[in-house]
Amino acid sequence: MHKPVFLHHREAFNDFYPMVKNALPNLPQSIVHCFTGTKEELKAFLDLGLYIGITGWICDPKRGMDVRDLLKYIPTDRLIVETDAPYLMPKNLAVKPKNRRNEPKYLINVVEEISSATNIKAQTIAEASTKNFKSLFGV
Is 0.85 topped by the overall pTM? Predict the structure, then answer.
């Protein structure tokens, strides 16, 4: 099938990374979905040539600041902006929906947060993410 693989773990890097590294020769291009790890983990994934998915997690001042601080280490050619809808609604929405459901239309809020953290124009972030998405999925 040779389709992109979404790789996801939470607080399990020491188990997860060796499996990914060993499987990589048989995997197509892949993305570390909803990255929430450390600087060392980020570097390890980037060294494998993986894309890094960033979600509304970074818009949460209580839990997202560590990842927000790591954004400067993610090259724009490895970044993919994600929503993780219907979960992880960005906390930086001006008006929050009553149903608290995340939707793709909130991607711009994640883009703006990345832009704010990296001093890279939001349009540049959006264009890079779109280009990376198209490359990853062959569209």
Answer: yes
